[in-house]
Amino acid sequence: MFLGARPVASAPAAPAAVMLGAPYDRTSSFRRGARFGPAAIRWASQSVESYSPVLDRDLEELVLTDRGDLEIEALPAEAMVEAVRAALTPVVSEGSLPVMLGGDHSVSVGAVQAVAAGHPDLRVLILDAHLDLREEYQGSRWSHATVARRILETVEAGRIIVLGARSGTREEFAAARALRAAQPNLKISNDLWSVLEDGPVYLSMDMDVVDPSAAPGVGNPEPGGPTGANLIDLLRVLAPLRIVGLDVVEVSPPYDPSGATAVLAATILREALLTWGPLAGAAQRPQT
Q1: Is the bond preceding residue 103 a cis peptide, omega within 30 degrees?
Q2: Which end of the chain is less packed: N or C, by CB atoms within 10 Å?
Q3: How many domains, in total, are found in the chain?
Q4: Would the CA dihedral through 252, 38, 47, 16 be positive or negative?
Q5: What value does the mean pLDDT of the chain take?
Q6: Is residue 286 situated within a structural domain?
């Protein structure tokens, strides 16, 4: 169970936030192991304090329940996407915040579909070292390398922002021009902030956005990224936004015996949870 979460039996019918694990890595293209991510993040959360001194907020103020893992590991990718969508749809309908632990990044597609159905004006903010804009990869349209392309079928390009992207094909970088933004840094300009603050936001965090020196336990490490501290700072900037869904994906424990990647994931998940509406103040435009 994740830090601060209440057992399902003692949680209210519609808790403020609902956590689900998505142990899936059948679309991983380089180093498989992300199916162990949900368990590793929950384990690592026990080493993290529930209180964020910078945000001055505490997970104990948030009614969070952890409903365990979805049984999706053996499913074909397209069926997995549908299973994730079906599992999160009632969470969105009851007004709770869906929080998903991946799993490779393909699990985010079904999650975005579920949240977008409840929030037609949804914005999607993706933190990822890779553009993931391929039409298909290794013969499949449903891959962790096609996530942003599949999300484009649900959310219009002008409401999708990718930060930290520093890898992709020539064709992907050409396609990225249609997005609101696709940039290698984590900087949010006034223009991007205006888009995000104007509606509900789904936040998807692929741990390979962080430089592998800080997060080696991922499926596709990509050098030249931000530090873990940079990512935590960004999440604190996002605190005023109206977050309506979030995920942390691509933690691959076999490639980080130290557990440092999982600890970082648990920490950023705490910060991300604490950005949510009931604990957030009035929106303030970030300084640039």
Answers
A1: yes
A2: C
A3: 1
A4: positive
A5: 92
A6: no
Burial degree of 89 (CB within 10 A; 0-12, 13-18, 19+): middle
Q: How many residues does the chain have?
A: 288
Q: What gap in Å lies between CA 203 and CA 243, rounded to an integer?
A: 7
When comparing pLDDT for 139 and 270, which is higher? 270
In the beta sheet, which residues pair with residue 99?
19, 246
Q: Tokens in use for 115?
A: 């949240």
Using alpha carbons, list the distances in angstroms from residue 59 to 74, 75, 144, 267, 275: 33, 33, 30, 12, 11
At which residue do the structure tokens 């997060």 appear? 215
The Cα-based distances of 281 to 56, 57, 158, 237 in angstroms read 11, 11, 26, 12
- Paired strand residues for 58: 51
288 in any annotated domain: no
What is the torsional sign of CA 79, 81, 84, 87? negative
Give pLDDT tens digits for 102-114.
Answer: 999 999 999 999 9
Other CB atoms within 10 A of residue 77 CB: 21
- C-alpha 42/C-alpha 59 separation (Å) is 14
Residue 146, in any domain of the structure: yes
Residue 39 pLDDT greater than 80, yes or no: yes
pTM: 0.93
pLDDT in tens, 182-212: 999 999 999 999 999 999 999 999 999 999 9
Residue 267 domain boundaries: 8-279
